[in-house]
Amino acid sequence: MADWELSGTVLVGCNCDYGCPCNFNAPPTSGDCEGGWVWHIERGTYDGVDLSGLTLAIFADWPGAIHEGGGKAVAFYDDKADERQSEALEALLRGGEGGPWGIFINTYELAGVQAMPVTLEVDGERSSYKIGDIAELQMEPIKNPVTGDEIRSGVMLPTGLVFNEGWCAASSVFRVSDGVSYDHSGKQAEWAPYSYTSA
């Protein structure tokens, strides 16, 4: 395995209700899991190749809970990556180098890995991204249904797969339309810092 380390922010959207029961090893809200994870690399290297400022993404569809497997997925990385960066990002996404992708790869069939233009803004509960014309997430704070006040809630996962401490939001827009296809606008979203290493 390569020597690598990455840290930054991950943005998550899925078809579950706020809080996402999958975080607690409970069945998904609707019985299946349809979700996407987009990792922005603020600082990172892979075998000496600088990956800082780049982004990678997985969008998947499982017929049940993630750990039950049987899913299908597509992966994308930032088309700003040069040849060596592209090779590094693809190696991570294909799961052979560990990290969360090394666990996910055992639960789905990966249809492909493609370079795509990425626009991304990390702004807490108002974070957003667009990946080409095939995936989009616009986040907004969860609102109290009675008062309309914004609610800030989080999830603590000291041994979490993707993050250890995440913050919940609502997806005003969450759609994917390539390889897997769904629209779960108005459902669960999360943003969280992450730090992974091959060691």
Describe this structure in words.
The protein has 199 residues and is mainly beta. The chain has one domain (4-197). It is built from two helices and 15 strands. It has helices spanning 83-93, 99-104; strands at residues 4-14, 33-46, 49-50, 55-62, 71-78, 108-116, 118-121, 128-131, 135-140, 142-143, 150-151, 154-156, 165-178, 180-183, 188-197. Strands 1, 2, 3, 4, 5, 6, 7, 8, 9, 12, 13, 14 and 15 form a 13-stranded mixed beta sheet that branches. A two-stranded antiparallel ribbon has the order 10-11. A hairpin with a 3-residue loop joins strand 8 (128-131) and strand 9. The longest helix has 11 residues, at 83-93. The radius of gyration is 16 Å and the shape is globular.
Characterize this entry briefly.
The chain is mostly beta strands and 199 residues long. The protein is built from two helices and 15 strands. Strands 1, 2, 3, 4, 5, 6, 7, 8, 9, 12, 13, 14 and 15 form a 13-stranded mixed sheet that branches.
